[in-house]
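User: Can you fold this complex?
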Amino acid sequence: MIKPWKIASVAALAVLGVAGCTGDFLSGGQLTTDPNRPTSATAAQLVGGVQSNLWSLWGSDPARVTGMWAQQFKGLISQYVSLYQYAHDETTTNGFHTGLYAGGGLVDLAKADSLAIKGNDKHTLGISQIMEGALMGTGADIFGDLVYSQALQGKTNPTLDKQQAVYDSVQKVLSAGIANMASSNPTDVGPGSYDQVYGGNPASWTKLAYTLKARFYMHTAKVDGLAAYTSALANAKLGLNDPSIDYKGVFQASPLAETNFYYQFNGPAGRGGYMGIDPQFINLLVTRNDPRLSDYIDTTADYVSATRNAPDYQQTYVSAAENLLIWSEAAYRTGDPATALTKLNAARALAGLGPDVAAAAGGQALLTEILTEEYINDFQLGEEAWNLYKRTCFPNLTPTVSNLKMPRRLYYDSGERQTNTNIPDAGTGVNGSFNQLDPSATTSDGGGACLDQ
Amino acid sequence: MLKRILSVIGASAMVASAALAQSGTTVSGRVTNTAGAPLAGASVFIPSLNVGTQTNDAGRYTFVVAGNRAAGQTVALTVRVIGYTAASTQITLTNGRDITENFTLTSNPLRLGEVVVTGAGTETTREKLGVTINTVDSSAIRRAANPQNLVSGLAAQAPGVEVRTQSGEPGASADIKIRGGSSLSGTNQPLFVVDGVPIDNSTSSTTGGQGSTVSANRASDINPDDIASVDILKGSAAAAIYGARAANGVVLITTKSGHSGPTRYNFTTSTNVDNIDTGNLKLQTDYGQGGGGVTQVCTKPNCVMNSNSFGGKLAAGTPTYDHLNEIYNTGYTFDNNLSVSGGNDRTTFYASGGVTNQDGVLVGPQNKYNRATFRLKGSEQVSSTLRVGGNFNFIDTRGNYVQKGSNVSGVLLGALRSPPNFNNLPYLNDLGLQRPYRFPNPTSVQALENAGYYDNPFFVLNSPGNKSELNRSIASFNADWNPLSWLSFNENLGADQYTDSRLEALPITSAGNAAGTVTRNDFTFLEIDHNLTGTAKHTFGDNFSGTITVGQNLNSRRDRNLNSNGQQFLSPTPLALQNTVSQTSSQNESLAHIESYFGQATADLYNQLYFTLGVRNDGFSTFGASNRRSNFPKASAAWNFTHAMGIDGKGVLSYGKLRAAYGETGKEPPVYGTITAFSTGSTFGSGYGDGINTLFGPGGIVSGFSQGNNALRPERSKELEFGGDFGFFNQRADLSITSYNKQTSDVIIQVPTSAAATGYGSKLENGAKLSNRGIELAFNVRPIETQNVSLQLGTQFAHNKGNVDNLLGAEFIGLGGGFTGANGSATVGYAPGVIRGSDFIRCGRGLKLDYNGSGVQDIDALCAATPGGYKKNALFLGADGLPVPDPTDRVIADPNPKYTMNYTASLKLWNRFTFSGLLDLRKGGNVWNGTEGILITKGTSALTDVRGTTNGQFGVNFDTKTYPYTAGPGVAVVPFTSQAKWDSWFAGNGGGFGPVGEQFVEDGSFVKLRELAVTYTLDAAWLNHVVGFTSADIRIAGRNLHTWTKYSGLDPEASLGGAEFLTQGFDYFNSPQTRSFVVSVSLNR
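Assistant: Here's the predicted assembly.
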């Protein structure tokens, strides 16, 4: 017979023996440190990360949807048929709005800003600010009113700034960026090769910032009128002046996640055939005998050209051509048709076109030609083509559905609507298809009544 | 011959028994029921000597007590068999004397005296249980509709246990939910424990569950033939001993063991012939490929064809093709199992080998599932106080799969979208290039790269490269030490380890990637579990006894996943990474530890009152630093009132027990959920699959979408259950009722946060609340029980009402599993896992919106202005007579059934024939028929035949079933006056690519005839003489023979993502269940 106390002590020892080595059985090492994800980043890495996200905003689905509404593209099958016919709701845009603020958006620019300030690196700070302007300006184009002045403050229900106020803030942050790019301290090292587009070159970033300022002034012209055109003109004069420094997405042939969006969409993502070129856009180029037809379009299939559908096609998002056309239109609007014609022809020259014969007549003909060139130059830049239309009702497009009007804005994400009571319910008019301050135009700047009425 | 082989296999064991038989006492006899029918498989043993055997099919047993142990003492001889009351008698062992002892056992359908495993090394008898534990025996699993997967085998076996098998393709996962869902993350699958060792039952698709291929839930690796019984711990009171892993219940699996006595052999072979039940899905054969009523013909190389079938009416005699049935053929499943078991008074063993070969119902060689398993389980009585045992199980599972679901290479997607007049064969053209219907005449791979198309289904069916090869070992060591009569210790140390090598390839010319792509996904998993308990018991006089158990559990789980993707094949084969132009890789690994202590006390009073009280203290490395430990208490009571009233076994109410239980269980936070990290992925997801990372150049980084939370606690379910078990007319009928109320709090969700305010789209937080209330009922009656005829009828019923009570202020959170426009969610006020999407504008919803660009309008006012007013939820028709999409995202479907029921019947004649049947019923539960939506857009659905009419009007002669009422300005307008108008409606808002998912939601109620079988038992003497077996069971059965349902798709049970997603009810180009005919022969010795 074994003594009970012996048994008890053996059992106790066994339990203690196992428990004894468990002092840190629940923490330490991979138990409480994530082996999969990084938890720190440098300002240059963050700026590099945001930059590729900006290309998504300008080149991925937001550009496709708005490009279809501007009737440069046409939805041929599946969901894109409905989208082409203006059917959109909160889920259409899931992610676009969040992307302005979350990973790759403002949150990382704010982190980059504070790291750059800590390192006294005004170039990285300036680039971060210019990206902020680009991001939030495009956000205002797409969504109208936005949380901006109260963004990232952890406030419950932050209030929305009016679209006009967002554009004003965008101008300010772009100006601040330009000022910082002018600094030349030894600590202004910039993001270097993390900036795949300009390698951190201050001059290029400065010019880009001026063109962006001009672009966003143009977007406010429907409300601000002459003042906006005057400001756009002043900034365009300092903007991108050489196609060699056009702002492009630096896509490459591989890996897949670094390839051009059109290639991904039509190829590996399996959406080939969803979206072709709108016949009215092809007709426009054919009628004008425009040599860009073959650059833009594969006319055998009425599809985006093989060049532009290549995985490593480096799509231009902000260009010297755009800058010249803004200069041209702004000059025209402010009463300087001579400069307008010169800049129009300079822009045409970049596309391999001779001087514009029709425009030489001046007046409405000149304006029509400028707007047409802008519209053609905006190919694949859906938001820009759409903004041009919203501002001018040009070209005077026939709505794809007879009793509907072309949407003027996208819905906020439902996630944001749920977590911020200041975001109105979908479909109430405010969070609907139109900005309060952006009604349909009654006449087209190309002449005649706007068909979208 | 077979006899000789078996003799060799069992030789050593037989030699051992023969040696012992030379002296000692031979105990033999027969065990029958009160009607005189023999009872097979009954354990007859002497507990004090730990020696005994099992009865054969004739109910006979014989075993020998070794001479050195038979010393004239009087011992108890006990007999136990499932379904009967155990019996005991005293015998005196005298050397050299034979004892014959026959037993007649009374039926005990309530299984009152049976030992029930209650988890973590504890057990009790069923009559003392204060909680519900459903026991499913091995034969029920073997008979199940999909016996290859033990989880499928649990379908319709216990009330409140809902099982959905993903599809009829080999290797498909099965989703199991017990009493609704208790969590909003993960998939609410219960914890699986095999012989005391927790095992992995995760389901991971190789490249994302909506597309990819079917993928197995890992518990399906267990060979169902090895299983002796399955105990399902449903409620928190039953499962609390597993603490923070048990909120979704626990499935305890006990494998077969050897028994001392003659070595026993069992060889079972079964052949299933499987085919497909295509349900109510109908395709049109009247209109050809094309658009606008114009048939398109491909006349030149590289012609781009219309993807729809809105061409002209096909001329009489035009050949058409049955694109649904042509991709299926007859499948076969061969299942062979051999087991040998036995032992002597000190040692027992069980050895088995099983091979399952399944060739699925899809045409072609690429849908196969093969599993080989072997198990060796043994125990040794080392000394009078110590027994040690080991259990080793090796599994080799291999599958070849076919691309499915939402995926341009999915087999049904390409097949069902094919125009009726397009012959998908041959699937390669003269140049050896794929021939998809949208691009039927390609001249080069480059031409295909620039074209949009869906894969030709036969190309998919013949594409190799979707594989899984898994090796798995589950092993354990256990020791029982009983140093004192009142004190025992139990140690169980186990490990579950597997490597699953996956390959998924889209060969060159695949629609998804014409240049080709291959993904290698290797999963490795290791779980080690140590569970030590000490139990002390004491009896205080006749009327009070009790036990106290304390235990410790240590657990370590290591998960690794290495994923490599290669793009663009250099050469068509091999489908290997090094044969691609570019590769990307990622690894994901995790480590989680558990350190827990638990205690439990039981008290038995006056043989009628039973109390259990317990608590588990859990420490998990996944809990936040400030909440590293948590307690999970439980308490239960059971009262046998018929015993108290002295009416046990008599009268109308022959048995009655009332029970009440309360318990708490939990669910751990996701691993590394405490950490906020950076990512290289983009926040912008276009929803169309194009995306970008941030790695350009030296590599950018952005913040992750979600914030971690270092204060995470386990989720907590508090469940109160009441019930009773009753026997009537001397247990000729029995009834079991349980009602439960489970309140789950601290549920962890990705709370949407205002990105504008925080910079993050969501944050992991405790605090959501949900509840499940329900009732479960089981009723069985045995109206005839004679020696030659016995009939048993049974029914089960379960109703569960789940409700999301609170989402920390959010109205809903997304749970995925579906699509933009119809996606899984948790929404306040609904059961977990409802589908959200958009509807058309309806009357009576108080909508005020700008529906036609002319400013915000009051919809209800417009509805009211209709002549005759409006009915609530009437379809609002715009001025053109068409419904208008409502942009509001809302709940459009609840896939959770209102109730489930089943009926079983079993008739046994002359102890030779057994006829059995099982009818499975599900009432309610919506299915989103995404397949139909798309087929309408594509013009291949038979519903689009309406295009030929010119008077189509909502609510009058179109969609009247879905929309019986209409209102609004267009109520009298006839919108469909031409084929073109129909076409544009189907292509837009009326089709599956439009924004309105609600129009494709259907009632998924069904009744399925799961099983109809007859078994013949043969135990004639010649069988033994000729083939060396004492008995044989020959069984002919049909499974899933018929489905009664109004669901218009393939199968209301279909589940696109299977057990990988919480939200069920998505039908999107996935295969239905199979219908099988089975012949099986089981030989016993």
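Chain A has a mean pLDDT of 90. Chain A touches chain B through 127 residues (CB under 8 Å).
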